[in-house]
Fold this sequence. Notes:
Layout: E1 18-19, E2 26-27, E3 32-35, E4 38-41, H1 42-49, H2 52-103
Antiparallel strand pairs: 1-2, 3-4
The protein binds zinc ion (2 copies).
One zinc ion (ZN) binds next to loops.
Amino acid sequence: MNLTLQRCLIHVDREAVARCPVCRNYFCRECVTEHEQKFLCSSCLQSMAAGVKPARRNAGRFMLVIRMTIGLAIAWLFFYVIGQLLMLIPPNVHDGSYLRNLGQ
Ligand SMILES: [Zn+2]
Ligand SMILES: [Zn+2]
């Protein structure tokens, strides 16, 4: 089938230059838009832009960021508590020995 014999789905008086790979209809140069090295018609491009797939990917990335933040917060809290405990132990030991020395 010769592509030059095809007419645009929207503009019947115009020759088709590209075929939309999604809806498999022929369109003129004005009706197609290049999207990821493919020529899509405007209706398919719109449905692709408002598609569920990219939204899901964004939601997954958003959840990953939240999970990483919670993980980092837990790790920070853990090391903060450990650090505070380690900082509290030496003065107590010193105070104890200091007081014992005074008592003698
Ligand atoms: Zn299409
Ligand atoms: Zn057209």
